Amino acid sequence: xxxxxxxxxxxxxxxxxxxxxxxxxxxxxxxxxxxxxxxxxxxxxxxxxxxxxxxxxxxxxxxxxxxxxxxxxxxxxxxxxxxxxxxxxxxxxxxxxx
Length: 98
What we know:
alpha+beta; Glutaredoxin; two-stranded parallel sheet; two-stranded antiparallel sheet; globular
């Protein structure tokens, strides 16, 4: 997923778009090392499980869960990946005139 996410972030660098990663890898140090190794440049945070913090608040029960929100913070798409994610983001940008 990360290579695709990198492409998306780079392609939309001059658009009103933000990618936010919430992760629950087995260990926060391993997570940070992987982010550095894989070149993650977008905001990405570590949560220990789906039973606390952001995952609990957003109802995440499995990984990966992908939400695509519009500019008003409304979830418009869930669990889209690859070209389907690109199309969802492009559609929302077009809707807002971006």
